Amino acid sequence: MNEARAALAADHYRIQADGCRSGASASPFYATMLDALGADAARRGPAARVLDPVLDSGFLAALPLRLLGGIHREVLSGRAPALATRFPSTGGDGDARAAIDDVLRMCDDPPPGVHDALDRDPQTNEVGRAASLAVGLAAIGSITRRPIRLFEIGSSGGLNLRLDHYWYDADGGWGNPDAPVRFAADEFLGRTEFAAAVPIVERRGCDLHPLDATTDAGVLTLLGYVWPDQTERLDRLRRALAVARDVPVTIDAQLGEAFVDQHFRPEPGTTTVLMHSIVWQYIPEAERRTIRAIVAERVAHSSVHAPCAWLRFEPRSEWTLAETHIEIWPHRPGAVRVAASGFHGPPVHVFR
């Protein structure tokens, strides 16, 4: 591996380390580990070599998160007992520096699960994003006042397709008041439209590599993408996985453009909603153009009796927060910002 590619690999680790170091969802455990991996990569060590086959994917592919997701999955599965004594998610002491030698050994001889993780976009399926998405859905419902047909691209295990089976305890509340996944009133900064929310009568998603959140393998993969020292996120995910066992959802193994073409079309008496969260960056530009063109063609046939909407939770340009935007046809064409939060969830700033 030449010096230039090793330096590029080191940059990947450095950028992700900075992302894990700051903000409400910081992970000191991963920040420390990524610093060490970056230093090893700069020396052309195992941390550089393990990324080399996928290094040309670019920074938006989040290669260090792919790698760490695969390693964390190995730890959670019981196949890496030495690392389990260090990872907080398995009762370890949280000493990332003490874990680095074992991590580098895994980089030097990656097990199949790590190879597989490096070939896929991260599948965080972060349940905390449901809070911001719910704000957007409620705003859509308050305007169209028609039940929702919900179609999501980049669904992973479909946990956020089940967002109406969680409880949002603000402004009258919405969802299932007995749900194990709950968002408190003080997690919403600003007045929501939950009192005007409408039911979801159809839901379906797509992903290039769908996960079944009701199987042991799917559960391990989803848990593996949560940062090990973020116990609140892990707890919320485990609660959402319990909901998933009782609420079936179909996730098609399909490109986003094909899925949108197949399902996104107005239907009288309902609001058809296209939804995605922290997904747009992973979709090639040509496919994005196709999706936008399909949406433009379909919404031209919308009406007040068969409205359409686009709900998206995606990063701001400076990557400090993610924002929820909605567009509603024919009522309110043009993107409107309705909420913002951290990438992993509340607090949610609500805008009117």
Please give a handful of descriptors for the protein shown.
352 residues, alpha/beta, Rossmann fold, 3-stranded mixed beta sheet, 12 helices, 18% strand
Low-confidence stretches: none
Provide the helix percentage: 40-55%
Count every helix, treating DSSP H or I runs of 4 or more residues as helices. Answer: 12
Distance between the termini: 53 Å
Mean pLDDT: 95
Radius of gyration: 20 Å
What's the level 1 CATH class of the largest domain? Alpha Beta
User: Total domains, how many?
Assistant: 2
Global morphology? globular
Overall SS class: alpha/beta
Strands, count: 12
% residues in beta strands = 15-25%
Report the order of strands and helices: HHHHHHHHEEEEEEHHEHEHEEEE
Q: State the major sheet.
A: 9 strands, mixed
What order do the strands of the largest sheet run in, or round the barrel if closed?
A: 5-12-11-10-9-8-1-6-7
The CATH topology of the largest domain comes to Rossmann fold
CATH architecture of the largest domain: 3-Layer(aba) Sandwich
